[in-house]
Amino acid sequence: MIYLDYAATAPVRPHIAARMHELTLGSLGNPSSLHRAGRRARMVLEHAREKIASNLGAKVEEIIFCSGATEADNLAILGTLTHGDNRHQHLISSSMEHAAVYETVHRQSQLGRSVSWLKVDDQGLIDLNHLSELLRESPASLVSVMIVNNEVGTRQPVEEVGKLCREHGALFHADGVQDPRTAKKLIESGLVDLVALSGHKMGGLHGGILFVKQGIAVNPQIVGGSQEDGRRAGTSEVMRAESFSMALQATLEESTETILQCRKILDATLGEIPQAKALVSLPDEQRAAHISSWLFGELAAEPLLVQMDMKGICASSGSACSSHSVEPSRVVRVMGYSEKQAVGLVRFSLGWDSNAEDVQNAAVVVKGIVERMLSKENRRQ
Amino acid sequence: MTRVVVAMSGGVDSSVAAALMKQQGHEVIGVTMTLAPNEESSAHKGRGCCSVWDVTDAEKVAWKLDIPHYTFNLRDAFEKHVISDFISEYEKGRTPNPCRRCNQHIKFDHFLERAEALDAEAVVTGHYARIEKHPTADRYRLLRGHDFAKDQSYVLASLTQSQLSRIWMPLGQFSKPDIRRMAEELELGVAKKKESMDLCFIPDGDTAGFLNERMQTLKPGPILDANGEKLGEHQGLGAFTIGQRKGLGIATGKPRYVLELKVAQNTLVVGSMEDLERDGIKVDELNWIDPEFAEGISDPGGRKASIQYRSTHRGAPGRVEGKATDEMVTVRFDQKEAALSPGQAAVFYIEDEVVGGGTISSSF
Predict the structure, then answer these.
(1) Is the ipTM reported for this complex over the cut 0.85?
(2) Strand B316-321 and strand B303-308: pairing?
(3) Which of A165, A339, B76, B347 is the most exposed place for a label (fewest CB within 10 A)?
(4) Of the candidates B185, B206, B230, which is a domain's last residue?
(5) Cβ contacts (< 8 Å) between A309 and chain B: which residues?
(6) What class has domain A255-380?
(7) Is B330 within the bounds of a domain?
């Protein structure tokens, strides 16, 4: 099997797996308990929080553990909008967002909240002038713009977004799931208020965090306990916290060089197919190193992905839906492609365990599959 | 090893079909189609035939059988060919048969095409019907399943020779109890799963409610008897079907049945059982599976056949008259038949074999 779907989930790093094994057998109590087993658990949890905070240039009280980044995104948006201490009532976001943000914002709009959607270009980049205009009209906004898009890999100009938000006094939430490195820089720069991150995209277990800048109030969206400083109820998940802190540290220590080299190998081979179209053709600093997304003529992604799977290659079509069938990609539509093309998105994504040889081998197999299906399609027409 | 794609609904029949294929040594790929509209969650309404939970059931069976499993999203095609047809047929006062439309346009068209993209040599389904190579002629035969009570050949009569040549229906030679037993022996989790009876896109069975939501034209109108006398009022022609007795909302001394839906006048005509009886039907949208039979219908007096005109009916003797090339043929029953609904299929059988069929256009 050659795994090319890190943007969906990365394999768990062996040293994290070993640590989880150790913790499972370590008779940890409930971190809220008074006794020594509870204390032991609490210490694992709080040391993990400390390590995460220090790695992100944040304070410990700025880190909230969540079940995952979807919950973190929900908490960021709903938690701030519903808190009386925040005067921010207008929402600004874009159709490039992950469903965790997009659906949350969309639902708010259906419930009657005023929402503005940012213009997006054919590379998936948001229009900063448009943002600037919108902020002039509604300075008391919550702006939600992701760092790297999960389907095509476009990196948004988040620093500029942050500066505009500061200028107008708006709140800035960034989904940083696909790019913890930039998330760290953004947090260190002080230009962002809320950032969601996910453990399983970095080679840890599931589980995420929300960074909330000190001074920003969030209403809990899950109630029934005072854990996480009253901002997220439910028994604190020690294993997830520890796994997250280890995965984040490992990710930040790694260079993206191998990943970039792997992607360039993949891009070069797939680029030889005449009908192949890379969805993003931005310079390296404006895109993620690990995501390479394609349209192959008018081929639908589904049969391609099935053929790849039968040859042991795991890739995907962007965002998965509840029944793992391929749905048209909203992101591809927003970038100006047709409905038919929107079901053609094939995403390859790389990560900590990718190596050039596997990627080269996979690229050749994928190219063969695509070419065969294209010629089959041509014969039919 | 032949590569085959099994259409797995998550039910017991197609699960056993997949198991049989695996036992026979084929390279099996399981595929589940998602068809019904993507509701946020329909769990509170009961499970349709392609809910997330059924997909999961199919996946579990595939996992157990150690075969790959995929989900194909055919919702758009289903909406276009099945649901909108379902609504527009009712709007025209006809009685649609969505399962037949689905077989014709989704399962054996879109799905077959998708299976071919996977280099599969055949598509396998869990239908209770048999497809066989004709012993002498260069064609395939479609036959009733051995389990007469379960036979589904009626909804398959629109299959063409090209489709028949690429579809396998391994359950046709078994009975439903056989299949349940096999599922239990194989320890498939779905062995005891309830039969789905409702339309998959209306899991709560409330067809009238569904039509009310989707149809713009539902408005109250009169219920008349055959002489034009007003007996009551209906709340919209929506889900009435010819021969229907329940839910008319009128109280008369004797049982009343729906005779006709007059869409232009928004009028429902009801009458007695005798009023429902007809000598014959006109049938269009024809598909001939046995060309010899089709040739024979132009002989004087046509060709004798058993004609099935409802999925639960098992055929009435009669004659098919016309020409093989006609767009519409005439069926004359040996004895009067009741509840012949335009929009339903009329399928012609010679003994167990489907020789052809079409759609009831009118009755006389």
Answers:
(1) no
(2) antiparallel
(3) A339
(4) B185
(5) 68, 70
(6) alpha beta
(7) yes
**Domain final residue, candidates B257, B275, B293:** B275
Is A303 in contact with B118 (Cβ distance < 8 A)? yes
- CATH number, residue B250: 2.30.30.280
Looking at chain A, the domain(s) classified CATH 3.90.1150.10 span 255-380
The alpha carbon of residue B180 is apart from the nearest alpha carbon of chain A, in Å, by 26
Same structural domain for residues B140 and B229? no
> pLDDT at residue A363 above 80?
yes
Q: Tell me whether residue B50 is one of the annotated catalytic residues.
A: no
Q: CA of A373 to nearest chain B CA: how many angstroms apart?
A: 7
Q: Which fold has domain A14-253?
A: Aspartate Aminotransferase; domain 2 (3.40.640)
Portions of chain A given CATH number 3.40.640.10: 14-253
> What residues make up the domain containing B162?
3-185
- Say if residue A138's pLDDT is above 90: yes
Task: Report pLDDT digits (tens) over A186-243.
Answer: 999 999 999 999 999 999 999 999 999 999 999 999 999 999 999 999 999 999 999 9
Q: Which residues of A touch B39 (CB under 8 A)?
A: none
Name which of A307, A325, A376 is nearest B71 (Cβ-Cβ): A325
CA distances from A256 to A153, A288, A317, B227 (A): 14, 10, 23, 84
| Closest by CA position to A223, among listed A211, A232, A235 | A232
